[in-house]
Design goal:
The complex is a heterodimer of chains A (about 250) and B (about 250).
Chain A: E1 10-19, E2 22-32, E3 37-41, H1 48-56, E4 63-68, E5 78-81, H2 93-97, H3 99-104, H4 110-122, H5 138-151, E6 156-160, H6 168-182, E7 186-190, H7 194-200, E8 203-208, E9 213-214, H8 231-253
Parallel strand pairs in A: 3-7, 3-8, 5-6, 6-7
Antiparallel strand pairs in A: 1-2, 1-4, 8-9
Helix pairs in contact in A: 4-5, 5-6, 7-8
Chain B: H1 4-24, H2 34-43, H3 45-79, H4 81-96, H5 99-110, H6 114-138, H7 142-150, H8 155-192, H9 198-207, H10 211-239, H11 241-245
Helix pairs in contact in B: 2-10, 3-4, 3-6, 3-8, 3-9, 3-10, 4-6, 5-6, 5-8, 6-8, 8-9, 8-10, 9-10
Amino acid sequence: MMTGAEAPAIHLHAAGLRYGGATIFDNLDLSLPGGRTTCLLGPSGVGKTSLLRLIAGLAHGAGGEVRDGQGRGLQGRVAYLAQHDLLLPWATALDNVMLGFRLRGTVRDSAAIGRARGLLGRVGLTGREDDRPARLSGGMRQRVALARTLMEDRPVVLMDEPFSALDAITRFQLQDLAAELLAGRTVLLVTHDPLEALRLGHRVQVLADAPARLGAALEPPGAPPRDPGDPNVVAQHVELLKRLSAAAAEGMRS
Amino acid sequence: MTVLRPLVILLGLLAVWELVVRATGVAHYILPGPGRVLRAVVDNGSLLLGHAAVTASEILLGLLAGTLLGCASALLIASFRPARRWLLPVLVVSQAIPVFALAPILVLWLGYGLASKVAMATLIIYFPVTAAFFDGLRRTEPGWLDLARTMDGRPWPVLWHIRVPAALPALASGLRVATAVAPIGAIVGEWVGASAGLGFLMLQANARMQVDVMFAALFVLALFAVGLYTLVDRGLRRALPWQVEDHGEAPS
């Protein structure tokens, strides 16, 4: 599946963010292993999204150094998938998938169009290429967004709660699809669903407290996407829920 | 029903008008009844049509010029920060001076012909179009711009493929307002100094106490204005189909 550059490891160093007089996080380090999926869990407002945006180069007010394993920046190697599909309502599914080409002013030759159609096929949307987003269901729209992310063919994919607005079954199917299509890339998935993290992550970390700190990394055995009925997943789900409720209780006290 | 409703409203208003005229017994040179006005429309058909054509071309040319100028200004102030600093105050001033006050000057400069009326209509249309389009350009969904940044989008393609289409619904409401106020500019211009047009005709008829002709001219003007508005509204709806589709919840 991977045709782009080698998936780099990512090191975020000395990240800091102050918001409204409060320190959200300060001098925080985060490492993402190359070609692996790291899931970041934590209570709302702890700064998960800010960390992801910092790595995406979309920081507003947050500071920190983002480097790959060789000490270079990530410019041009990142694709971004947000909670909302961010599809352009006036453009067809196919045009949405090819948005990056339009915005960079690159030629959209028949090879590129063929690849976009192929990706829409991979996410199960053959025959819906010419539909506008309003004609698609929420799940279909997020599939188009996934195809758009893959079309960019970047070695790093940053996802901010991409499936949280979907119903349980659609979410389950999309998790499988994402695990399959994103394999081999360096992925950061921010989520508030511990089960989702355990299904998709090679590594799961909890961000908690203010200023935020990263808990010990959990590395569930086996390759994603994992079966939610797997005893390991069930046990670690319980463990994660404990850690998250402890984090939430701490948040209340502070 | 969509065709029937305006017709019912129109007939209802005409009935009230007729009723008021009959009940009060007001003299026909003060307020002629709808029947008398309709007769005046028919009797003066070619006269009204000729003057209406003049007014219509003033309105349409003003609408075209005002829209083009407005869109260009909005794009300019949205894309260049210095332009914003210099052009925004001009925009506000252009609206602070009433068109009524400018009308005599414009007639003095541009003459009694078409140009001064087109200028007037342009002036009155320019502001709503510019303000609405600029507002739309400024309020692009931040998520789309974030996405564009991660895609390494270049400024012009981002403007053309995201910010402009995203601002079109706002521009459309500006255009609707502009269409509704455009006749004001043309008519004011004709009142101040003209040799043709429905406004000119109304002044002439007024001087000669031809109240029924005045009302006939008013009727034709209203008919044109409503027709133009409907046409523009329909056209905009058709041009921006995603805006209508958005009202229905997508099945999920």
